[in-house]
Amino acid sequence: MQGRWFLRTSAVLAFLFGLMLIFNTRRFEAPIGIDVSDKIATIAQAQGAILLGLGVINWMTANGPMNSTVLAVLAGNLVVQLASLAVAVRALATGIFPPAASPAVVIHVFLGTGFAYYLARTAAATRAAEVA
Fold it and tell me: Confidence class of residue 32 from pLDDT cuts 50, 70 and 90?
């Protein structure tokens, strides 16, 4: 039950961030000091589209059975969060992003921890069901 809640929560966050990147790129990027040209806006909007797709995948997975097929979705989400965390930490450490961008690190740590936890939990439950 909690795994479903986490997948739905991550889906809603993906929808919100995706829509903001698509429809309000300049305002979304302003707190981290990015001067959004038309080219950068287009790249950000493409990232928003990817987030919308990830949100759909997470939402639909949350509505299905919590079995071995969920492992791929959880693992893919974990990779997204770890890679995004590395990008955000690097950007903060090198001064590309100002300290105002620090909440991105918190979001990626929270989501990454959740995906790792539910991945491990689902994997264990799947192994137990296969043995039974």
Answer: confident
